[in-house]
C-alpha cells in the first residue's frame, strides 16, 4: 500500500499541532499577567505611567523614577485560576461521546519580582527590575474530555531590564528601559489515534487493511485506550525596550505616557510524539513512529501603550489609566521541524486571529495615618478574542476586577505592601473542533475564576 495518501490524511487531521506551544489561561487578557507589584495590585494598576508610587516604576514607567526615593522593592504574588467546562465532547461522526474526567483545571502560581531605583544626580535616575509578566499554566490531565484540545500547558516569561530617567524640563522628564525577555513554554495534547485510524479507513487510505485487523477496536472510540501524545517544549531570549514621558502640571497633578515594544521570539526546543503499543499496527503502517525531534515556532509578545493621570488631594490621591495592546500579533502559530513526522503533523498553522484590546482602570489611595495607607481600584480589560474564536485554553471574556490594598510603614526605612484582587466570574461559550482533534468536538460553557494576592517589602536606600 502507498503511504503518501495516508500521510496526507494524518497531516489534514493534525494540522493544529503548531498551536500547542503557547496555550494556557492566564489572569489577565491575552497571555500577560498583571500581578507584578503588591502595591499596584491594591489599586488595580490604575496608576500606570503616572503614579511614581515605588521602585516598580523602573518597569511600569521609567520616566517617573525621578519622583521615587532610592528604594529596593521585593514582591511575591500568588495567583489562583480555576477553569471548568460545563459541557461535553464527542468524536467519530459526533455520535460517540468521549469518555473521561470533567474538564477542570486548578492552577496556583507564585510570581516573585524585584525592583530597584537610585537617584544618581539632580535630574538623573537609574533603575533595574526582574519580573515574570508571562507566567502561568494549566493541567486538565490525560483523562479529561478536553484531552484532544489540551492536557497540560506551562508558560514562563521573565523580563530583566535596566532603566534610565532624565529631566529635560522643570516639568517634563523622559525615561526608557532595555528589556531582556526569556520565554519558556511546554504543552501537551492527546492524539485521538482511534479516530485517526477510522478516518483513514473511511477515506480508503488503509487499502486492504481495516482498523480491527490492525489491532484497533472501533468500540474503543471515545476511550483513551489508543491515545498518543504530543509534547513540545521551547525557549528563547530576545530583547525589546520601552519609552515614556512624565509631565508634572503641578506638584500634585501629573500625566504619564509609556510605550513598550513588541519582542519577537523564535522558540526552539524539542517535539516528542509517542503512541501506545496497542496502536502500533496502525501507527506503524502510517509511519507515525515514536519521535523526539527539534522544533521551533515564531512567537511575539505584543507592543503596548498606556496613558495615566495622577492627582493628589491632601491625604487622598486619585488615578486613572487607559492602555492598549496589539493582540493582533497573536494571529497564527506554526511549528517547524526537520523531522518528517513532526513536520507532517504540523503541516498547517493554527489560526487565532485576535484583535487589539483596551484596558481601563480607576483607583484611589487614602493616607489614614502616618503609618497606614489604604487603597482600592477597579479595572476593565476588554477581551481580544471574538466569540467564534474561543478555545478551551483561551476561554475568557471581558476581565472585570476589584482590588483592595494597604501599605504600612514598619520602620523609617521599611514599608509593607499588601494587595488583593478579585476577578468577576467569566463565562464563555465554546464550540471547538480543531483539525488536531481528529473529529473530537468540545462544546459547552467555560467558567473561569481568578483571585490574586501579593505582599511586598520596600527598603529606602
TrEMBL record:
Pfam families: Toluene_X. This is Outer membrane protein transport protein. Its main location: membrane. Residues 1-28 form the signal peptide. InterPro entries: OMPP1/FadL/TodX (IPR005017). It is a multi-pass membrane protein. It is found in: Cell outer membrane. The lineage of its organism: Bacteria, Pseudomonadati, Pseudomonadota, Gammaproteobacteria, Oceanospirillales. It comes from Thalassolituus hydrocarboniclasticus. Keywords: Cell outer membrane, Membrane, Signal, Transmembrane, Transmembrane beta strand. Belongs to the OmpP1/FadL family.
Amino acid at each position: 500500500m502507498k503511504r503518501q495518501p495516508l500521510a496526507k490524511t494524518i497531516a489534514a487531521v493534525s494540522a493544529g499541532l503548531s498551536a500547542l506551544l503557547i496555550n494556557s489561561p492566564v489572569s489577565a487578557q491575552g497571555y500577560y499577567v498583571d500581578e507584578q507589584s503588591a502595591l499596584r495590585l491594591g489599586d488595580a494598576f490604575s496608576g500606570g505611567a503616572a503614579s511614581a508610587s515605588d521602585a516598580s516604576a523602573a518597569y511600569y514607567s521609567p520616566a517617573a523614577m525621578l519622583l521615587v526615593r532610592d528604594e529596593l522593592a521585593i514582591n511575591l504574588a500568588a495567583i489562583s485560576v480555576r477553569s471548568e467546562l460545563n459541557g461535553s465532547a464527542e468524536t467519530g461522526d459526533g455520535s460517540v461521546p468521549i469518555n473521561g474526567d470533567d474538564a477542570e483545571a486548578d492552577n496556583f502560581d507564585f510570581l516573585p519580582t524585584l525592583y530597584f531605583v537610585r537617584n544618581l544626580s539632580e535630574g538623573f535616575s537609574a533603575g533595574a527590575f526582574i519580573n515574570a509578566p508571562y507566567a502561568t499554566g494549566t493541567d486538565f490531565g490525560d483523562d479529561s474530555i478536553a484531552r484532544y484540545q489540551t492536557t497540560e500547558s506551562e508558560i514562563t516569561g521573565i523580563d530583566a531590564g535596566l532603566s534610565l530617567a532624565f529631566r529635560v524640563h522643570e516639568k517634563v522628564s523622559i525615561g526608557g528601559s532595555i528589556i531582556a525577555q526569556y520565554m519558556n513554554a511546554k504543552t501537551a495534547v492527546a492524539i485521538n489515534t482511534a479516530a485517526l485510524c477510522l478516518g483513514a479507513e473511511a477515506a480508503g487510505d488503509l487499502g486492504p487493511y481495516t482498523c480491527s485487523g490492525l489491532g484497533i477496536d472501533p468500540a474503543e472510540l471515545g476511550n483513551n485506550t489508543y491515545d498518543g501524545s504530543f509534547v513540545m517544549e521551547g525557549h528563547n531570549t530576545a530583547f525589546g525596550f520601552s519609552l515614556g514621558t512624565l509631565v508634572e502640571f503641578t506638584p500634585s497633578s501629573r500625566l504619564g505616557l509609556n510605550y513598550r515594544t513588541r519582542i519577537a521570539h523564535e522558540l526552539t526546543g524539542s517535539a516528542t510524539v509517542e503512541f501506545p503499543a496497542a496502536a502500533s499496527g496502525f501507527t506503524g503502517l502510517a509511519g507515525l513512529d515514536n519521535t523526539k525531534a527539534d522544533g521551533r515556532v515564531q512567537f511575539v509578545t505584543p507592543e503596548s501603550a498606556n496613558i495615566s493621570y495622577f492627582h493628589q488631594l491632601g491625604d487622598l490621591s486619585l488615578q486613572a489609566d487607559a492602555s492598549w495592546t496589539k493582540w493582533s500579533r497573536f494571529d497564527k502559530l506554526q511549528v517547524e521541524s526537520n523531522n518528517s513526522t513532526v513536520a507532517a503533523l504540523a503541516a498547517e498553522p493554527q489560526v487565532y486571529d485576535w484583535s487589539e484590546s483596551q484596558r481601563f482602570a480607576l483607583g484611589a489611595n487614602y493616607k489614614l495615618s502616618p503609618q497606614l495607607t489604604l487603597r482600592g481600584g477597579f479595572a476593565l480589560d476588554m477581551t481580544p478574542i471574538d466569540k467564534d474564536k474561543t478555545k478551551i485554553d483561551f476561554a475568557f471574556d471581558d476581565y472585570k476586577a476589584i482590588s483592595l490594598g494597604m501599605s504600612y510603614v514598619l520602620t523609617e526605612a521599611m514599608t509593607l505592601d499588601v494587595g488583593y484582587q478579585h476577578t468577576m466570574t467569566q463565562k464563555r461559550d465554546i464550540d471547538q473542533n480543531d483539525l488536531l482533534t481528529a473529529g473530537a468536538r468540545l462544546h459547552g460553557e467555560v467558567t473561569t475564576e481568578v483571585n490574586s494576592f501579593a505582599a511586598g517589602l520596600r527598603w529606602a536606600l
